[in-house]
Write the C-alpha cells for this entry.
Amino acid sequence: MSLKWPGVGVWCIWAMALWAAPPLSAAGLDSRPAAVAPGLQARDMAGRTHTLEEYRGKVVLLNFWASWCPPCRKEMPSMERLRVKMAGRPLAILALDSVEPVEDVQGFLDTLQLGFPILLDPESANTRRWKVYALPTTFLLDTQGRIRFVLKGGAEWDEGEALEAIEGLLGEANGRDQAL
Amino acid sequence: MRVRQIGILLAACVAGGVHAALPDFQVDPAQGARLLLWVSSERGRADAEKTAAQRLAQRGVTVWSLDAPGAYFLPQLPSSMDQVPAADVADWLDAALDSGRQVTVYAVGRAAVPVLRAAARLDAGRRSRICVLLMYPNLYESAEALADADYLDTGRLDALTIRLIQPRRSAATPWLPGQVAHLSRLGARVSLVILENLREGFWARETPTAFEVEQTRQLDSLILQEMETCR
C-alpha cells in the first residue's frame, strides 16, 4: 500500500529497513521448485478466452494486479518495456486484473499503451485458484508451464534480477531446444 | 477538547478500580453514554483519524485512542501488533466496561489481533457486551501465494459481536468469506460491510481519489453509523 502516516519512529524504521533489506535488484523474487501451475481461464478486454495451455513453449510472466493499486500501476510500464525488449523471443506477458469492473480497468488502460493481453477476473475465480493474497503478485512460468518464481510486490521487470530470472528461463528453453 | 493523560490514572478514575498494566492512550471526552475504543493500525494514528475522533467526541461519543506501536515503543510493522500484551488490552476493555457505558471497539488492520486476543480473555458475559468493528483486519499467520492462508490463534470469541468493514478495493476482498467463516468458527457473531470505491487506509493515502478525500471527511459518520447498527 502507498500510505502516508505520521510517527516519530517512521524515518528511523525506514532507514533500518533500507539498511537491512537486500538491494533493489534482488526484487524479492522467490524461487520455487518447479511445480504445476493452477488452471487459468480468463477473458481479455476483447472477450477472447485465454488459458495457459495456449502459451506452452513460452516463458510466461503472469501478473495479478488492479488499477487502484499504486505499485501495480507503477510496474506496468516496465512490463511493456520488457515486451518490446523481448520481441521475437518466446516470452508471453499476461496481466490479470483482479476483481474490478471493466470500466475501471479500461479507465486505467486509456492512460498508457500496453501491447500484452489484459485479462479480467471479475468473480475472482482465478485469484482464488492461484491463492493470491496481495497485489501485485507475479508468477514466472517456464516453457513447460511450471511455476518457477513468485514475486509479491512490484518490480522493474526489464532490468536487474527480474530480467535475469526471465533470461534464465529463456536460456533453459534454448538449451533444451539445442539438445534436441 | 483533547486531553493527553496517562492511561493508568485515567482508567482507574473512570473505572473506579485499580488496573495493573493499561496501555497509554488518549482521550477525547464526551458526555454521552457511548464509549469508543479506537485502536490504530500498525502504522500509528493518522491525522485524519485524530480529527475523526475529535468529531465523534463532539457528537457525544467518548473516544479512547490507542496507538499501540507508540505506546509500546514498537516498530510500525504488522508483526509488532502481535507483540502487544493481550492482558493489557483486556484490562483496557475491562476498564471500559466498568465505566458503565456502551462499549464499541474499532480496530484497524493488524490491530485486530491484540483486540481479539484481549476479547478472548474476557468472560463470555462481558464479551457479549462489546461490539468490535474490524476495519480491513489482517488476521493471517501466513498468506503466501499458491498456499492456503493460516490464521493467527486468537482464542475463543463466543458471544462477541464482530463487524468486518472492508474497503472493496483490496486484495483481501476475495478472501472475506474465509475470514467470516474463521471468526464464526471461533464463536463470534460476524457481519460484513463493504465500502465501495475505497481502498484500505483511504484516509491516509498519498494520492487519494476525490471520493476518498470526501469519505475521509466523513470518517466519523462512517464509524458512528457502524456503532449504531452493530448490536
Summary: Chain A has a mean pLDDT of 88. Strands of chain A lie at 30-36, 41-44, 49-51, 59-65, 91-98, 118-121, 137-141, 146-152. The two ends of chain A are 46 Å apart (CA to CA).
